[in-house]
Design goal:
Jelly Rolls; globular; binds fe (ii) ion; about 170 residues
Length: about 170
Amino acid sequence: MHPEISDFVNRIESSNTPWLPYGLVEGCSFRVLKTHEASNTVVLNFLMPPNCTTQLHDHFCTAMAYTLEGEWMYGNQVFKQGDLAFEVPGEIHQPVTGEAGAQLLTILFGGPGENRFLRNFEEDGSSYTIGMPFLKAVEGITPAELEQIDLEALLQDYTPPDETAFPQ
Ligand SMILES: [Fe+2]
């Protein structure tokens, strides 16, 4: 007997998934479309306004960012509409936009056993890690629901010990 296809395929309507303010960077928004804990996979949209500088970060996961619209940069690498950034751990970098802004479809893949995704570095030398607990907590929620969540606790819980030096 064949199982129903719906046991295996989720259909997520992004048009019914609210954008949330990404409180970590002024003007940025995001929405988590799907989290899958068994594989530590997260699919989200990320929206950067024009002339935006987001956080310096590195990865614990493989990250894939497909540019749905607009344009953005990592240093002198320019990603235009239709371009894919495929990122493996090992580099610290910082997304910025110019006049256009950009909307991305981003897939974070930690793989089994690795539920940390990104580590963001603050200018004061601190860092914190965005992992599955944070992204699971905000999956598909509304901005009003977001306000009820203790995001700082979710992020701090995942700050890895001892790897927090601000890169020179
Ligand atoms: Fe990155």
